[in-house]
Amino acid sequence: MTVHSSSSHTPKLGMRTTKQRTAVVEVMQEIDRFQSAKEIHTALQDRNAKVGLTTVYRTLQSLVDIGAVDALHSPTGEVLYRHCESEAHHHHLVCTKCGRTEEIDGGPIEKWARQVADTYGFQLTGHDAEVFGICSKCRENSQ
Ligand SMILES: [Zn+2]
Ligand SMILES: [Zn+2]
Ligand SMILES: [Zn+2]
């Protein structure tokens, strides 16, 4: 892992940006759930922000690259994006119906990943684990 040192603590999303990039960032900060690039694009259109879908994809990828936005693959294979509160390492519990997301601790997964890498002589560079379910609100609504 590369560690960038920064003396002053500025929010990662507040860095120098273009107008379009800023629009994407603002929408990401407003919406609390994981959503696809297409949904983000629609949300931008609702706000009369003129950002093309290609730019939305590119911007999201660059935000993921700097760690400002988290991305995950939904069970249906879609890539979903979210701006999370926590800047520390975390995992996600995601409602597959409404996209509601809880930022969760990896718990035993953290240790397990290190052990598995050790066992096979790998240097650990990362791991991935997300939990999907249906939240209580969505369960109530479907009853
Ligand atoms: Zn996250
Ligand atoms: Zn839900
Ligand atoms: Zn973890």
Automatic annotation (TrEMBL):
A GO MF term: zinc ion binding
Gene Ontology cellular-component annotations: cytosol
Xref: SUPFAM superfamilies: Winged helix' DNA-binding domain
Superkingdom: Bacteria
Biological-process GO terms, alphabetical: negative regulation of DNA-templated transcription; regulation of secondary metabolite biosynthetic process
Family under the similarity heading: Belongs to the Fur family.
PANTHER family reported for this sequence: FERRIC UPTAKE REGULATION PROTEIN, ZINC UPTAKE REGULATION PROTEIN
Descriptive protein name: Sugar ABC transporter substrate-binding protein
Organism: Corynebacterium stationis
